[in-house]
Amino acid sequence: MSSSKAYLSLLVRIFKEKGLETIIFSPGSRNAPLIMAFTAEPAIRCLKIPDERSAAYFALGMAQQTGKPTAIACTSGTAALNYAPAIAEAYYQKIPLLVLTADRTPKLIDQGDGQAIRQENLYANYIKHSYTFPSLVVSEKELQHIEHMTNEAWNNSLYPEAGPVHINFPFPEPLYDFAYDTSRKVRLIQLKETTPIPDTDQTKVLAKQWNHSKRKMILTGLLPPNPNLEKQITELAQDPTVTVLTETTSNLYIPGAIPGIDKVVCTFSAKEAEIFKPDILLTMGGHIVSKMVKSFLRQHQPASHWHISPSGQHMDTFQCLTEVIPASPDAFLDGFLPLLQPGEGNYRSSWTERYNRSEERHHSFMKRVPFSDLKVFDMLFKTMPVGISVQLANSTPVRYSQLYRMKKWYVFYSNRGVSGIDGCISTAAGAAFATRHDTWLLTGDLAFFYDTNGLWHEYLDNHLKIVVINNGGGGIFRFIEGPDKTGHLDIFEAPHQLNARHAAGMFGIRYFEARDETSLTQAVNRLAYSRDTAILEVFTPREENGKILREYFNTLKNK
Ligand SMILES: Cc1ncc(C[n+]2csc(CCOP(=O)(O)OP(=O)(O)O)c2C)c(N)n1
Ligand SMILES: [Mg+2]
């Protein structure tokens, strides 16, 4: 192998063989060897996004949709630090990313060299695995070690559950002397994915307990669409002693299930909460959005909480975990369902009745609610085109979405791993780019302005549509208890007079705006038919939204 970095040919070829399709570069000099190595391999698509924070979220959006690792590569220094937010989100949302950071050689760290920080294990607290490659790779033994680490890095990004893996490359100068070398046969280390089979004895014990209980609750978190799981839970929901609570981001449409959890839980008095709490709680999927159901189940803890986790993660969200089921939900329910006997009781109907009461009040409230965030989301979920993917930005968009019974033809995604408002546009852009499928991002204004760099690249196309609900600041802080009692609401809300028109202009994106029901109906249509990426900005009354939402919940609560 000719140059000191020729070993990079091995890395590229192993990743290619493993199935890497896309790598996203951010500009720099130290990462030149990586740029030259990957661009020499025609099978791998090389993209470029200047802002590392945005590039990492874009890669996350792609991997969120493909289920395959997307690679990102940057230069040394703060460039690498800017990957951190998306890496943390990928870690907690279990999305595969290959994070490649170029670095100075060890002798230059803390010695006054530019762009030099301690990058070894830089993302320690939210990375599945971190490798630092040697600065110099010449011997056969060293090459075999590179092969081993490269294979392991790929496999670790997917098994037993997906997540981000980091490789740090201390590159000595010269940086531009790379030549792609395909002479050497590459060694691949296969890791055969096995679906963990639940222990039948454990399943029998659980089924016995389940059959004896009169109050069982299934609560689903963040999940990609899964028709098989939907069928299994629909069967479970036939049992009158079982209530099924789903979230919009669970993408499960189950007859008889409760899709608007907050609309029911907000109505419970302390005494009622004890009646509505389950004896057994069965959870599956990722993070739960509803703050109300979290506080309800933490205060009124079930005797048993079973969590299904393929990697055996002890996610104790309600501080009453009693069982971890190390399997995929499908595999566990396959063995569990045949052992069940339907019970007798009114647990399910007590929840359904309360839900139906709230639904009635919801619809009558919607008929008289003035133009506001609540009304805008109601109209959007009734008029957005069929079959689109919906990316929900954090803060109120993902929360408002929980208040509506969704149509089966929408698929929902949201960065609920760490719930940051800092990468919502970039993630949606990556998802639209990877799928070439109509993707609508519903975002607040602060989240929009925070990530306008998510528009700063050449991979925007007509599949991406952005709806900005501009309520003049962090509207959520006008609804939750606390901020308005501090006397410093402005620090929480960060009010502003900005609009998205100029950002759209800067990036050459079509722009529509709406300020009432009529203009919103027209604008949603124009957005849907726009042949290019487009932004619809909807202005709502800053000081009214929080009051209206509080009045909405009070209406549901009233005896
Ligand atoms: C990176 C990051 N910084 C701060 C927060 C805290 N935070 C949560 S919601 C929110 C306000 C978001 O405002 P906007 O996007 O306008 O949504 P709205 O509340 O108005 O719906 C903030 C600042 C966060 N989640 N992520
Ligand atoms: Mg806002």
Care to give the gist of this entry?
With 559 residues, this protein is α/β, with parallel strands linked by helices. It has helices at 7-18, 32-39, 52-66, 78-81, 84-93, 140-156, 200-212, 227-236, 261-265, 270-276, 291-299, 329-336, 347-368, 373-383, 396-400, 424-435, 445-450, 489-493, 501-506, 517-529, 542-557; strands spanning 22-25, 45-48, 70-74, 97-103, 129-132, 164-170, 216-220, 242-245, 280-284, 304-308, 323-325, 389-392, 411-413, 439-444, 464-470, 510-514, 534-539.
CATH architecture of the largest domain: 3-Layer(aba) Sandwich
Associated small molecules: thiamine diphosphate, magnesium ion
Strand content: 15-25%
The total strand number stands at 17
Question: What is the strand arrangement across the widest sheet?
Answer: 2-1-3-4-6-5
Oligomer: single chain
Q: Report how far apart the termini are.
A: 79 Å
CATH class of the largest domain: Alpha Beta
Q: Which residue ranges are poorly predicted, with pLDDT under 50 across at least 5 consecutive positions?
A: none
Per-chain topology:
Blueprint lengths: L6 H12 L3 E4 L6 H8 L5 E4 L3 H15 L3 E5 L3 H4 L2 H10 L3 E7 L25 E4 L7 H17 L7 E7 L29 H13 L3 E5 L6 H10 L5 E4 L15 H5 L4 H7 L3 E5 L6 H9 L4 E5 L14 E3 L3 H8 L10 H22 L4 H11 L5 E4 L3 H5 L10 E3 L10 H12 L3 E6 H6 L13 E7 L18 H5 L7 H6 L3 E5 L2 H13 L4 E6 L2 H16 L2
Parallel strand pairs: 1-2, 1-3, 3-4, 4-6, 5-6, 7-8, 7-9, 9-10, 10-11, 12-13, 12-14, 14-15, 15-17, 16-17
